[in-house]
Design goal:
It is a single chain. This protein is an alpha/beta fold. The chain is 39% helix and 18% strand. It has helices spanning 5-15, 67-86, 106-118, 130-143, 170-183, 198-213, 232-239, 252-265, 280-283, 307-320, 326-345, 351-357, and strands spanning 47-48, 51-60, 93-101, 123-125, 147-149, 163-165, 189-194, 220-224, 245-248, 271-273, 295-298, 363-365, 368-372, 378-379, 383-388, 391-394. Strands 8-7-9-10-11-15-16 form a seven-stranded mixed beta sheet, with helices on both faces. Strands 1, 2, 3, 4, 5 and 6 form a six-stranded mixed beta sheet that branches. A three-stranded antiparallel beta sheet has the order 12-13-14, with helices on one face.
């Protein structure tokens, strides 16, 4: 199916409550490392204008089903840290990344946060997933420390004044994809979503609401609970529903299972998804025959000709012999956001100074240019990726 950038731009224009057209990136930026002086809080790390270390505490899954996300975030952040330090740091200060595995478990995420706070980190980059990010935010707001989630997209991830995000929100993704599907001339989408996932349910609910306003008919609305691996029942219902496309607001692991089982059941529909799809090609071992032409919303595609993207991709590949995904890009830009903060505060690494500076910075990164609202949301633009010949192709 032909992808239209004009259509997505129109959708963005209709739904953005903040100016997402700045072309922002989930991770990245051009700020220089900076900042240092005193304690960021009673629990924070120490840094001074004369030098020292600014500690960034990362939280995400390094093991388990969502490990791809956490590993990408950790590695993308480390690339940025290494670049900044190699360029001389900021105000004589170097950056250090301390990263803890939360296994995509909320209780373990809080434990990871407490361990990082014991290590006197100056800011939190995480958590990676929405549920864990929300759990951590309930702790971080009490400590007053800056928290930036690279990829937590649920609305509640930014409900506290110390919390910000790099990625799109779930409701915005749902609205944009409903608009996009409608503009493609499709009328009857079927849905499979994870009822136990904040991410999936948030996108699903916004999609259904927007579909109604656009005159779309939800042909089948099927759910599952995270951890399920058999989707034949849902797919059989969809096969007889009259659906003309399949919307999957879920993570890449389940997308892989569904696409393989759809072929056995005989469901042959165009696929649409959101940013949780990133990683599905690896999940399928590179065999994308069943999802060829699938389209998903994303802030980053590694084969872009944008010089900032190519520079990041080259650095990441050199460090890890791999191609970065959007989660790596989100984290990369997240570190550069912290760098911009440190420059803006002029060496003040207190919690208050860092949080206040978030609405004063603008970062031009691997996923574009971005600024931030007082509500913790990024001003940024979106793009779609198509799966073609075993690759993600930006459109």
């Amino acid at each position: 199916m032909k992808v239209s950038k004009k259509i997505l731009a129109l959708a963005l224009a209709g739904f953005m409550t903040v100016p997402f057209f700045a072309g922002c990136s989930s991770d990245g930026g051009d700020a220089q490392d900076g900042g240092n002086s005193g304690n960021s809080s009673a629990d924070g790390g120490e840094a001074s204008s004369a030098g020292g270390t600014f500690k960034i505490g990362g939280i995400g899954p390094l093991t388990g089903d969502a490990a791809s996300y956490g590993i990408s975030v950790k590695q993308g952040a480390q690339v940025a840290v290494d670049e900044i330090n190699a360029a001389g740091g900021v105000n004589g200060m170097t950056l250090e990344l301390l990263f803890e595995d939360d296994e995509c478990n909320e209780e373990k995420s809080v434990s990871a946060y407490n361990k990082l706070m014991d290590s006197k980190v100056n800011a939190i980059l995480g958590a990676v997933t929405s549920g864990c990010s929300i759990a951590v935010s309930e702790e971080s707001v009490n400590d007053g420390i800056l928290q930036i989630t690279p990829s937590g997209s649920a609305m509640d991830c930014t409900k506290n004044p110390n919390s910000f995000r790099i990625c799109f929100t779930d409701p915005l993704q749902g609205k944009l994809m409903a608009q996009y599907i409608s503009e493609q001339g499709l009328k009857s989408p079927a849905i499979i979503y994870d009822v136990a996932s904040d991410y999936s349910k948030g996108i699903h609910d916004a999609f259904v609401e927007q579909a109604s306003t656009l005159g779309l008919t939800i042909a089948a609305d099927e759910s599952f609970t995270g951890g399920d691996v058999d989707f034949k029942t849902q797919l059989t219902k969809i096969k007889s529903s009259g659906a003309d496309c399949l919307f999957l607001p879920i993570y890449y692991t389940e997308v892989g299972y569904i696409s393989e089982q759809a072929a056995t059941v005989g469901v042959e529909l165009p696929y649409f998804g959101c940013d949780g799809w990133d990683g599905v090609i690896n999940q399928l071992g590179g065999n994308t025959a069943n999802i060829e032409g699938a389209i998903f919303l994303t802030p980053f595609v590694a084969n872009s000709s944008n010089p900032k993207v190519t520079a990041f991709v080259d650095a990441y590949n050199k460090a890890y012999n791999a191609t970065p995904d959007q989660f790596a890009a989100d984290a990369y830009d997240g570190v550069y956001v912290i760098k911009a903060l440190l420059e803006t505060t002029g060496g003040d690494v207190s919690n208050e100074a860092l949080i206040d500076a978030m609405t004063k910075i603008s970062v031009d990164g691997a996923t574009g240019s971005m600024s931030f609202t007082v509500d913790g949301e990024p001003n940024k633009s979106a793009m779609v990726a198509v799966i073609e010949n075993g690759e993600y192709v930006g459109k």
